[in-house]
Write a structure and sequence with these properties.
The complex is a heterotrimer.
Chain A lengths: L3 H19 L5 E6 L2 E3 L3 E9 L14 E6 L2 E4 L1 E7 L2 E7 L3 E2 L3 E8 L2 E12 L2 E2 L37 H24 L2 H30 L10 H21 L4 H29 L20 H37 L1
Parallel strand pairs in A: 2-10, 8-11
Antiparallel strand pairs in A: 1-3, 3-7, 4-5, 4-9, 6-7, 9-10
Helix pairs in contact in A: 1-6, 2-3, 2-5, 2-6, 3-4, 3-6, 4-5
Chain B lengths: L1 H18 L1 H22 L5 H21 L7 H10 L2 H31 L9 H26 L5 H28 L8 H25 L3
Helix pairs in contact in B: 1-5, 2-3, 2-5, 3-5, 3-6, 3-7, 5-6, 5-8, 6-7, 6-8, 7-8
Chain C lengths: L1 H26 L4 H37 L1
The chains are: A alpha+beta, B mainly alpha, C mainly alpha.
Chain lengths: 342, 222, 69
């Protein structure tokens, strides 16, 4: 079993694809209508859920509990009517005074308590910060099924975590391999080390481009734009630029030994500054990515357990595949050199 | 030993520069023309952020222009001759120090013409000490990175084009931190607000010098 | 190569006219299609890369054959 790691990474990726596409998304609320509430009036409201089972209720309750919240002030809703597992109707009396113009909606039933933040806007409300009351009784949920968290904006596309994010991990792994071999080349001038460094950059660029393309698609349908000015995104773009520059530098030197040495020097120089850049950049700008304020996406600190069991194998699997591709390129390149030298 | 070699090499650079007055005149003319061009396009800049960013961008391009010739003027044989006399580390460090001085002069001239043409209003009420430190650290950083990149690009045919491609992505952490620090200085805030930026800039400058010191000898091992 | 270029242009053009369609389909079914799109991009990217390696190896094989004969 010389190639055990190839089989392992294929098995890991197979597991990742099957599990990440089969695991259902947890319940969540997706929409309400109407979205504007008139104060001082009784409004009829419809709430749409996703993967919810509104008909399952604890034995002592006939309806899910529904309430609105606005900065610590809770409004209990009446006449809750379950249309089907995904749809609820209810009515609510909105007072003239509210602590804030935006209201969140909560639905609490057998599966747990779910919220849609800023679901409503109150028209012509008088601002009153003093209003506060206790939250109604909520259920923590009796269902312990294995599912991915249902996040605002992300929804099913949370599965991209297993495909888009490992691209960056893989790229950085390959660039690190490249630098290690560049240093080795500079200390021993072994042409084979230069060959590995060059091929690692080449494969790393493939994963960098895939990361940019997939990130762009994902950003378009979550944040609304193909490209958003974001620390991680800009860092990734600069990394790709630096390594494209590396290939161009190689292309513009003719003499083989000279080329290898100059490219290795640039590689080490650029890599160190790149690492500094990736550490400095987040301090200077805000990020839409995890861990930065006001972000609806998952944060790396509360990466859900269900996501974690698939995410780590995904990273290892993609890294394994990239090393396999790198090995193929190295072998091809060595054969080419043998032919040329023969 | 190293320090004496560096001193001699810097003297040599100065002598060459003074003998060839066209080069330094070219740099000054470049700066003045660019600033004048910006003046004609913008007339006057009231917005401090734009004023600050544009200044650093102009300085970035003049740094590229100034430093790109630092290895071009040396013929291959003269360099080889130099290596038999002094250590490669002395060559790169002397070039770096000389370029820092050159950049300092360029930056001051740029600042003079820039504020003359595009308005001094952002400079009023600024933390002048911090702004000057930002300028100094900026010149050192630009000179450091571009000197090393120039040494790399000198090995290729297309010096200026390659330098821009190689250098701009690498100059970015420096540029962003500089714009941040000088922005803080222009708003007249006290020193505590710029501690992070000052630390990053100082660290980066030391890192660049150390990297060049280690890597440059490999560039010349023929 | 020409076919590929044509395909890309056709795709871009069709995106323009069906942009509304893509928009709704991407947001439908809880944005599941975004995940599928991402997987498709990665799959196509890696397959194209493999084709390029394949072409390189074919060229080498040809060269070996020529040298032997």
């Amino acid at each position: 079993m010389k190639n055990w790691w190839k089989y392992l990474s294929v098995a890991l990726l197979l597991y990742v694809i099957v599990v990440s596409l089969n695991t259902p998304l947890g319940p969540g609320l997706t929409a309400v209508s109407p979205e504007n509430l008139n104060t001082g009036e009784n409004s009829e409201i419809k709430v749409i859920g996703y993967n919810t089972h509104f008909r399952n209720n604890p034995p002592d309750m006939q309806h899910p509990g529904v309430w609105l919240e606005s900065d610590g002030f809770h409004l209990t809703c009446n006449n809750v009517e379950v249309i089907d597992d995904q749809e609820l109707h209810f009515s609510v009396e909105v007072p003239d005074e509210l602590p804030s113009k935006s209201l969140h909606v909560f639905v609490s039933y057998d599966e747990g308590t779910f919220m849609l933040p800023n679901a409503f806007r109150a028209e012509q409300s008088v601002k009153n910060d003093q209003l506060k009351n206790e939250a109604p009784e909520s259920f923590s949920g009796s269902v312990t099924a294995f599912y991915f968290p249902n996040r605002e904006i992300l929804r099913e596309s949370i599965r991209n975590l297993m495909f888009h994010v490992p691209m960056w991990f893989t790229m950085m792994l390959l660039m690190t391999i490249s630098v290690v071999y560049s240093i080795k080349y500079l200390s021993g001038l072994n042409p084979d080390h230069d060959l590995i460094a060059r091929q690692a950059v080449n494969v790393g660029l493939l994963f960098g481009i895939l990361g940019l393309l997939t990130g762009s698609l994902w950003a378009r349908f979550t944040w609304g734009q193909w490209w958003v000015s974001d620390t991680k995104l800009n860092g990734a773009a600069i990394t790709t630029l630096i390594y494209f520059a590396y290939t161009i530098l190689r292309g513009s030197i003719n003499e083989e030994q000279n080329k290898a040495r100059v490219a290795a020097v640039y590689n080490v120089f650029a890599y160190v500054i790149l690492i500094v850049l990736l550490m400095v950049l987040p301090r200077l700008t805000d990020s839409l990515h995890p861990g930065n304020g006001g972000n609806p996406a998952f944060s790396s600190y509360d990466l859900d357990n269900a996501l974690r069991t698939v995410f780590y194998p995904a990273v290892l699997g993609w890294m394994g595949i990239s090393l396999w591709i790198l090995q193929l390129r190295n072998r091809t390149e060595r054969i080419k050199q043998q032919i040329e030298n023969a | 030993m190293l320090i004496r070699e560096i001193g001699v090499l810097i003297r040599k650079e100065f002598d060459l520069e003074i003998r060839n007055k066209v080069a330094i005149g070219g740099i000054l003319l470049y700066v003045v023309t660019t600033v004048f061009l910006c003046y004609l396009s913008f007339r006057e800049l009231q917005d401090t952020t734009v004023w600050n960013t544009l200044f650093w961008v102009i300085l970035l391009f003049s740094a590229l222009n100034t430093i790109s010739k630092s290895f071009q003027t040396e013929s291959r044989y003269r360099l080889l001759y130099l290596y038999t006399l002094v250590s490669p580390a002395a060559v790169i460090l002397s070039k770096m120090i000389y370029n820092i001085l050159l950049m300092g002069i360029t930056a001051l001239v740029t600042l003079l013409f820039y504020s003359l043409f595009l308005g001094t209003s952002p400079l009023e009420g600024a933390n002048a000490g911090m702004y000057l430190v930002a300028l100094l650290l900026g010149c050192a950083g630009f000179a450091g990175i571009f000197t090393m990149i120039a040494a790399i690009a000198a090995k290729t045919g297309n010096q200026l084009g390659i330098m821009a491609i190689l250098g701009f992505p690498l100059i970015l952490p420096l540029l962003l931190t500089l714009i941040g620090l000088s922005g803080i200085a222009l708003r007249g805030l006290p020193w505590e607000y710029g501690t992070t930026e000052l630390l990053i800039l100082t660290g980066l400058n030391i890192l660049i010098a150390a990297l060049s010191y280690i890597l440059f000898p490999y560039l010349w091992r023929e | 190569m020409k076919t590929l270029l044509f395909l890309i242009l056709a795709l871009l053009y069709s995106y323009d006219s069906f942009a509304g369609g893509i928009e709704t389909s991407m947001h439908a079914a809880g944005k599941m299609n975004v995940t599928l799109g991402v997987i498709a991009i990665i799959f196509i990217g890696i397959v194209v890369y493999l084709f390029l390696i394949d072409r390189k190896i074919t060229r080498l094989e040809k060269e070996i054959k020529e040298r032997q004969s």
